[in-house]
Amino acid sequence: MAAAAAAAVGGQQPSQPELPASGLALDKAATAAHLKAALSRPDNRAGAEELQALLERVLSAERPLAAAAGGEDAAAAGGGGGPGAAEEEALEWCKCLLAGGGGYDEFCAAVRAYDPAALCGLVWTANFVAYRCRTCGISPCMSLCAECFHQGDHTGHDFNMFRSQAGGACDCGDSNVMRESGFCKRHQIKSSSNIPCVPKDLLMMSEFVLPRFIFCLIQYLREGYNEPAADGPSEKDLNKVLQLLEPQISFLEDLTKMGGAMRSVLTQVLTNQQNYKDLTSGLGENACVKKSHEKYLIALKSSGLTYPEDKLVYGVQEPSAGTSSLAVQGFVGATGTLGQVDSSDEDDQDGSQGLGKRKRVKLSSGTKDQSIMDVLKHKSFLEELLFWTIKYEFPQKMVTFLLNMLPDQEYKVAFTKTFVQHYAFIMKTLKKSHESDTMSNRIVHISVQLFSNEELARQVTEECQLLDIMVTVLLYMMESCLIKSELQDEENSLHVVVNCGEALLKNNTYWPLVSDFINILSHQSVAKRFLEDHGLLVTWMNFVSFFQGMNLNKRELNEHVEFESQTYYAAFAAELEACAQPMWGLLSHCKVRETQEYTRNVVRYCLEALQDWFDAINFVDEPAPNQVTFHLPLHRYYAMFLSKAVKCQELDLDSVLPDQEMLMKLMIHPLQIQASLAEIHSNMWVRNGLQIKGQAMTYVQSHFCNSMIDPDIYLLQVCASRLDPDYFISSVFERFKVVDLLTMASQHQNTVLDAEHERSMLEGALTFLVILLSLRLHLGMSDDEILRAEMVAQLCMNDRTHSSLLDLIPENPNPKSGIIPGSYSFESVLSAVADFKAPVFEPGGSMQQGMYTPKAEVWDQEFDPVMVILRTVYRRDVQSAMDRYTAFLKQSGKFPGNPWPPYKKRTSLHPSYKGLMRLLHCKTLHIVLFTLLYKILMDHQNLSEHVLCMVLYLIELGLENSAEEEPDEEASVGGPERCHDSWFPGSNLVSNMRHFINYVRVRVPETAPEVKRDSPASTSSDNLGSFQSSRRPKVLQRENSGTAQVFSLVAERRKKFQEIINRSSSEANQVVRPKTSSKWSAPGSAPQLTTAILEIKESILSLLIKLHHKLSGKQNSYYPPWLDDIEILIQPEIPKYSHGDGITAVERILLKAASQSRMNKRIIEEICRKVTPPVPPKKVTAAEKKTLDKEERRQKARERQQKLLAEFASRQKSFMETAMDVDSPENDIPMEITTAEPQVSEAVYDCVICGQSGPSSEDRPTGLVVLLQASSVLGQCRDNVEPKKLPITEEEQIYPWDTCAAVHDVRLSLLQRYFKDSSCLLAVSIGWEGGVYVQTCGHTLHIDCHKSYMESLRNDQVLQGFSVDKGEFTCPLCRQFANSVLPCYPGSNVENNPWQRPSNKSIQDLIKEVEELQGRPGAFPVSISSETNLSKEMESVMKDIKNTTQKKYRDYSKTPGSPDNDFLFMYSVARTNLELELIHRGGNLCSGGASTAGKRSCLNQLFHVLALHMRLYSIDSEYNPWRKLTQLEEMNPQLGYEEQQPEVPILYHDVTSLLLIQILMMPQPLRKDHFTCIVKVLFTLLYTQALAELSVKCSEEDRSAWKHAGALKKSTCDAEKSYEVLLSFVISELSKGKLYHEEGTQECAMVNPIAWSPESMEKYLQDFCLPFLRITSLLQHHLFGEDLPSCQEEEEFSVLASCLGLLPTFYQTEHPFISASCLDWPVPAFDIITQWCFEIKSFTERHAEQGKALLIQESKWKLPHLLQLPENYNTIFQYYHRKTCSVCTKVPKDPAVCLVCGTFVCLKGLCCKQQSYCECVLHSQNCGAGTGIFLLINASVIIIIRGHRFCLWGSVYLDAHGEEDRDLRRGKPLYICKERYKVLEQQWISHTFDHINKRWGPHYNGL
After folding, report:
1. Fewer CB within 10 A of the end CB, N or C, for the chain?
2. Pairing of strands 1021-1022, 997-1005
3. pTM of this structure
4. What is the DSSP secondary-structure string of 609-646?
5. Lowest mean pLDDT among 24-33, 1335-1344, 1795-1804
6. Rounded to whole angstroms, what are the CA distances from 1196 to 880, 1184, 1190, 1199?
């Protein structure tokens, strides 16, 4: 094949003879060595030619391409070797040639040795875990790989870990991006001197081979790209080509990883223009190259790009026609002509001087710069490689290769320029792409590496017009989705806006380009160029104006809109990202005085753009009604640059402000937004759907507010400070549509607003004025003050976590601004205003995080309701802040009542904005305030306390900001102002307050009560009438000199507007179309208006004093305080901050008014002297009465509701208490048994469903609500106290062989090997793993009620969290989770006294009785022969118990399904429940009493059910262990071992199991003396076992010593109760067998090095017996209701022994307690011991080893624990997040680790799925019998699996601020929270996950 290929290539044949293909393959190394030698000679031409020929042959692109071409025929063309074979061959050749005959690996190592490695440059792809340190970063995009991060020193830095979204590269070692102090050990700047120089011959071959190799790759790419027919090439085809090229690209990637030396060779190859020209120009006869070049041209053409041809066209050399061979299209998308030069004869528009040196058209010339959009000229491999990378939509491998080269500086520059050159092409490809998300990420992955470097960005800006290119490309991109704007003048609008519904905006496709733009603007040098370039600024403002007025909302007036568009997301994102972020970037460079020029430029072009916009939308002076857009980026640019100019650059504000007319226009749209916000909150836009509320919320939301509402309000403040205040105020009330409401009349007509919206709109207007006048964000506050105010506002609404505060505080969006979240100032301000509340765990199970709460002094002095109102997204937050404030005042005793929002003194205004305060001193506002005070006093409808609060606030603001001295003569008021002086003489609030107004003429509906009055002779002044008043005939307006005209807000505003316009423009008459408001009023619909004259005779002061009386509810309640203490006026100590309600506010205002003017003081005193006449009774119409009462009624209803709720809560509480205490089942167990109660009462149960009480009976049994669950907690006990640690290195592993479950398993299987199966199953207990635990909430119900309850649950579809079909339900009373009902056994409550009384029978008699009773089959006191309901229920609950656990945890017998199995399972259930209760009590019974575990215990009922079923299996009396324990048998030495396996020797039996078997085999209820008898007998066996184990554990010497010591005492009287005697006897009996013989082998293992003393032996024996005594005492406590005594740990044995009746009562306690004294042998001790030992002797004859092992029973288990976790979460994360799964050997996507046993599992991984169970679910069944506790590594969260449900439990790792970090989003260091982990462990041990955690969901086996 190779030979054929070589022939096809033509050209020179190699000089050496042809080798057959196989020979070539064998001899690659030799050929390579030969060529290298040839090339090393000084004259290497021959060698070079030879090599070229060889490469032509090996790397010919033809052969494999047959396979790559056109997808479908690949298989056919592949032929024998398949497509991959040839490529692999070529790669092998390349590797051999590069290595020059040596081994490739050695070659790699050699090259690496020369790597200067100053930069890390590790490239990663999406989802990689990297770090960012803000302390070390210079650029905000800086990132480090984990290795560099951990090897650098970042202690105490502000860093976080993050998952890379788009991929990135490590910046370690790059001092342009990060500070050198943060470099890791490997990259701390190495001087290049210690790196040796690269020897020439090492890389010589590479320089020859690589150009060919890269060209070959490019040919593949050209070949494989087929221009699609319709839309973008099908993903499939492109991916196919890329898959084929995988090995080649990987090979290149590996080369880059060889280090600096190889990278510089690659750089040479990639950027060498000559190489590229020679290889790709399509010259020569090589058909393949020619064809490939044609494909390349076609690809260019189809991309809408022209290829400026060079002088060489297909080898025809001729001079080019004309100066320029470039075709510039008029429109993009029309493809230019290609091919022969002469065909492209159009000259360039600017007639530039030829090709390479074309000057770009300046954008300001108005033509679109085609060269940016449509021309691409490739001059090197790098350029064409990038072209194909883009064409193929940025394949990951290619991106990684291109980025891996970046540490090479020369490459970095070349690549950046290439990238910029292709920028427009990238944008076009991105727009067409189907996978724009992936592609965006890959683009940013590259660009962020290039543009974050200031030096590089500056260079490219200067040399490649980077800014021009970016702005043009963005503009071009947006132009494709413009639509006509419908704002204002729909028909004639010339303005175009982006269409937010387009995919381009909806999917954020523009994001990568905008993000690059923001990135380069963060560099000062680049931003300055931008701000200096007028052409660019014009273009940019043009771009911004595309967003001005987008997403217009039109109010729906009739029916609800049918389709709610969600385009507003796109609109807000676009304004924030494409307009606001670049704006913040630019602003960050305009910080100092020297930058004034930049601001002037921006402001100038911004105003021009705004003027164009007003013209385009045909705007005059009235906004179109019922429309609003939230997007005014041009206004906001203007506002923010103004603010910056005044704040930082000391510019004179007036020098950058436009004329009055422009200011009037500027204020209209932002004001419209404020009014619309009020309308939206008043539900006037409800027909537009929820999305309009969404917009109103987003507009003020923390990420948007400082780019949206803040600039808007600031702009309005600027306009207000420069426009006529009367005009401004009247505009506000007109925009808010409440002009008609501002009338003295009690009734009015509002033509533009429904009555129900009036009040909230009025509140909105006043609130807006308050915000406008109080807010100082841009009017003089410093950055730190702003930060503090923002923080206080957020903390006052709610306590906040640290991260939510960071999120809620609108940081200056530009990262270099200084208020970086987490920066020093943030932390210092936070600690100044807030206290930290550490995280607590609430008993209800909800976990609190660490919270910050405002300090007391913040509530006291800094709470600012205005700021809160401005920043609340939800209105309820304002209420929440006020409630918290009220609570603080009550608590601190500062104010008892219902306080009003406090009045706060503001920071002083910057001098430029002083004019703002004129608003407070204009007649229009005073008239409004006067009117509102009057209306409130007269109780007109629609006015609330809120309105009054705002009115008083405005008056107080006015007094605070009044002119210093009060003009005494009224003459100072100038001419035109005279127009309504019948209202107020001047414009100063201080003097206007005392001005009395006598009569007011009002327009009222004829029906109003005022009309009836005759008007007094002297005519009145008149109120701000309704709209119609402006059209009254002139006659009325001049009745006599005493009356002024009717004052109408609207007319006033119109007049002012007219004046201003006439002043400012001569041709105003054409411009202004006086618009009447006819479009709003509906003529005819309103009743006739008529004029009435009201007698008022009040001034603002008198109204305030009357209000004081009204608010306090007393006549004459106001007494001027200065009459007692004149000092108050001279030095009014008015605090900066005042708490109180309306009364205190009025008092404050009056005091301020008096202290500012003597006249006011006098007048106030006068008013107070007149005894105030009572307010005239109001004539209230029914309608008014209704609305008035509505509020009161609501208030009362609210109070009633509160009262009811409180009452209900207390009733419920007491009910719960009684339910818990009185009816809970332990009351079956009487607490004191006195002989005084002979009568027997039956237990009475309450059914929580039907509420009836009564006993449980055969036919209507009652049951306890229980939860059955399988548990393996017991199996997790280990014998060491220290819990195991979670493994965090490969060495640490956890082996389960020392767990309780494992030990018990081994023992059982050992027994089953040697003994009879049925006997083995009685000798042990199971249930250590998968045992069934039964718990109850203590409530009872009739079983038939329960069935109907379940039926109703089944029909109720809205159930979540549990499955009714599995029998699950929640207790109807306490809602606790449950899944079964345990029938209560009918019987007495107090156990019959006869049963209780100790009888005087001898132990022998009792033993006989016990045996007889056990022998009696199923003789129950209740006849069970007939099937009763009770027995059915008992059976069904038993079935439930069995089904609770898996079969493998029930079946241990060798013959499946044998009855012995059931028998074993049943008594083990009892054992499991007793053992678990013991663990819940802390592992011992020292605390005594009934613990919480006792409260939930239902052992009594459970025992009845188990006993009932155990009795069905009677044990053969022959095998009954009872006989072996209590009777001596004939010893038959030939026990017939041969026929069958023997029974288990009694000494190998588990005594506790025997106890349960004996007791459950007895008829119930059991007699106390029988119980004691059984315990006594079993204790003798237990004691003997202890002695036998002791004898095995000690050494040979000890044994013989004891044997003799005890033998001596054998004859003493109480030998049977002396442990020495008994021990010696056991030793002598056991030594008859071979038990002790194997000593030699086992010596070391068995020897216990401690020297045995009598004390230590006694302790050993007691410890051996204690577990049995504990379980027995618990059992006695539950069966007979006897209290458990409490005791010290050291006396636990003796206390329990006497409690169980093992200790004789006359026992003296003086001498030290000896356990043997509890023994009470039923038959002579030595005989029975001999008998027991004989069984063992015969067994150990054959199996001494096992015999010894079985004698040792591990009984001292410690409490179970979860694994111990490391202090720092990072240690877990770093080890596990890249660890491979042992099952599928992949790195899991969601790794998890089991906290019980440390197993590593794949969460949700399909890789490890078995029979439709995912790995976590499977593991939870195997490890915890259905309960699993997993730590999710990538989320730091713990997840609980319980059966078929799961829940997220929360995290036990918290950051320094006590917060969880779910999903590691913030990536801050996390530390273990021990309290939380303890709670988790507690819930696991107590099995309460189901009760405490509320949010459960089904997992469908998918975890």
Report:
1. N
2. parallel
3. 0.81
4. HHHHHHHHTT--SSPPTTEE-S--HHHHHHHHHHHHHH
5. 24-33
6. 20, 19, 10, 5
